[in-house]
Amino acid sequence: MSENSFNEKVKELLLEIPIGRVTTYGIIAEKCGMKSSARMVGYILNSLKNQTKYPCHRVVNRFGELSGKNHFQGEELMQELLESEGIEVTDNKVKLSNYLWNPLD
DNA sequence: CGGGTGACTTTAC
DNA sequence: CGTAAAGCCACCC
Questions:
Q1: Among A31, A16, A21, A32, which Cα is nearest to A60's?
Q2: Which tens digits make up the pLDDT trace of A69-95?
Q3: Which of A96, A26, A89, A23 is nearest to A56 (CA)?
Q4: What is the span of the domain harbouring residue A35?
Q5: How many domains does chain A have?
Q6: 3-state secondary structure of A5
Q7: What's the whole-model pTM score?
Q8: Is A32 a catalytic residue?
């Protein structure tokens, strides 16, 4: 019995994201075996946003936009966290070409 | 069981 | 990366 496999897998994957890197909902979804349901990733992250244990701020949409920043505790908290890790945030988004993390890495 | 919603993605134009 | 439409799945009423 794998419990809430999806939820659990997302948590594990979040903890595997290296500092100074970001990933997308689609990648997480696919890595958890539900690539068709990237929406669920954001939905689950919403449950983890209050838990500082998980780096929810390192998850962006496919264009690198901070789609979840509005759902964070502070309005600019997500960007501040990313910048504190060395990630440059411009126009409310990051450069996936430079910061995107691939689980295979 | 059905309808609405959401931190998304893909395809088409 | 513009808009529009469809797919997707958990959760709530």
A1: A21
A2: 999 988 899 999 999 999 999 999 999
A3: A23
A4: 5-92
A5: 1
A6: helix
A7: 0.93
A8: no
